[in-house]
Design goal:
The chain is mainly alpha-helical. The protein contains four helices and no strands. Helix 1 runs antiparallel to helix 2 and helix 3 packs antiparallel against helix 4. It is flat and about 55 Å long.
Length: 147
């Protein structure tokens, strides 16, 4: 028997609340490592993870609120007003990916492992941003017929 929308929503909220608990544990765990380490690299990595966990917690709360409080809608007008800005920002993200890839190529094999490690992180993060914008553009072109 297929689940009803209400059941799916209730399960999603329950999952998000559970996931938020895990994110809070991650925030505490990374904070403990930050407090213990003297390594600037480990500190930086833990700080990145901690901030991502804080952001994940915020996104999970947004999902919960979109079900329990205020449904989220995007109007064609919303998309029209920002469409050109999103497209321009997507070009910036693509430019940054290209710049980081060029930097990675320069350091590869040059015994700059830490720099290469961090550059690889940056390129993946920039790709993530580009994917977020591309997906938003899909909403623009798929859900609404916006020019």
């Amino acid at each position: 028997m297929a689940m009803k929308t209400k059941e799916i929503q209730e399960n999603l909220v329950k999952t998000m609340r559970h996931w938020q608990g895990i994110e809070r544990q991650s925030i505490a765990s990374t904070g403990a490592v930050i407090g213990k380490t003297t390594s600037p690299l480990i500190h930086l990595v833990m700080e990145i993870i901690q901030r991502d966990s804080q952001l994940h917690h915020h996104v999970q709360q947004f999902i919960i609120d979109s079900i329990e409080s205020a449904p989220v809608a995007i109007t064609p007008e919303d998309m029209r007003e920002i469409s050109a800005m999103i497209d321009a920002h997507l070009k910036l993200e693509e430019e940054m990916v290209g710049a980081v890839n060029a930097a990675i190529a320069q350091v590869r094999g040059k015994k700059m492992g830490i720099q290469e490690y961090l550059l690889n992180f940056l390129v993946e993060d920039e790709k993530k941003h580009a994917n977020l914008l591309t997906s938003l553009a899909t909403i623009k072109s798929g859900l609404y017929k916006v020019s």
